[in-house]
Each structure stands twice: as structure tokens, then as C-alpha cells.
Design a protein that fits this description.
Elements (H helix, E strand, L loop, with lengths): L3 E4 L2 E4 L4 E7 L3 H4 L3 E7 L6 E6 L5 E3 L7 E6 L4 E6 L8 E8 L3 H5 L8 E2 L3 E6 L1
Parallel strand pairs: 2-11
Antiparallel strand pairs: 1-3, 3-8, 4-5, 4-9, 5-6, 7-8, 9-10, 9-11
Length: 128
């Protein structure tokens, strides 16, 4: 099983930026086979999609982050990034990285994947 480690979280102010990174303990040649995503869970709320990137670079974004967040990946480093700009208080949550080898159509059937591997999560707090 692939292991995912998230870094880059912390405290930011409203309107500020943070960049999350998620690195997989797998060779770059294998990492390219994974569809990668970011999800988040705020206190007393369900986990939700933030962004995900599929093989051949197609991407999905949650409605609340469109135009503010950008997902990207560097396969040579087995890493996926989440650039978060224009942060809002409601972006406060634990952010989870996810890796999945299933076909994109299967992943898209689920708002939150039921299979694949998850990172341990990293806290992002946005203050006013």
C-alpha cells in the first residue's frame, strides 16, 4: 500500500495563501498510475472534495474552492500539491490527501472515495 505524507498546513489569515504537499512513498514511474486528490473535513461536517487530478491532467474542484485553489502534481517527485489562495475562514479544516488507481469514472461516482489510500491529514486554520 502506498503511504502518503501531507505537509504545509498551518495558520493563515483571511485572503492569504498556503500550499499543501503530499508525497507518496512510491517510485515516480508508479506514482503516475495514481489519481490524486485532496479532501477536507471541518468539525461536525462530512468530508468533502476539494480537488482531484487524474491521469492525463484532467481535474475536478469542489464548488467552494473553484477559482481559488489549484491542484498540481510533480510525478518526478511523487508529489501532489494544493495551492490555496484567497483563503476564507470556512476553509478551516483537516485536509487529507488521497491516492486511487481505479478508473476516473469510478472515482467520480463517489463524492468521497470509498477505496484507495489516505494520508494522515493536516490542519489548516484560517483566521480573521
Amino acid at each position: 500500500q502506498v503511504k502518503l505524507v501531507e505537509t504545509g498546513g498551518g495558520l493563515a489569515q483571511v485572503g492569504g495563501s498556503l500550499r499543501l504537499s503530499c508525497t507518496a512513498n512510491t517510485a515516480p514511474s508508479l506514482f503516475t498510475a495514481y489519481h490524486m486528490g485532496w479532501y477536507r473535513q471541518a468539525p461536525d461536517k462530512e468530508r468533502e472534495l476539494v480537488a482531484r487530478t487524474f491521469y492525463r491532467d484532467s481535474t475536478d474542484y469542489g464548488d467552494s474552492v473553484k477559482g481559488r485553489f489549484t491542484i498540481s502534481r510533480d510525478n518526478s517527485k511523487s508529489t501532489v500539491y494544493l495551492q490555496m489562495d484567497g483563503l476564507k475562514v470556512e476553509d478551516t479544516a483537516v485536509y487529507y490527501c488521497h491516492a486511487d488507481m481505479r478508473p476516473p469514472a469510478k472515482i467520480r461516482e463517489e463524492q468521497v472515495p470509498q477505496f484507495g489510500q489516505w494520508g494522515q491529514g493536516i490542519q489548516v486554520t484560517v483566521s480573521s
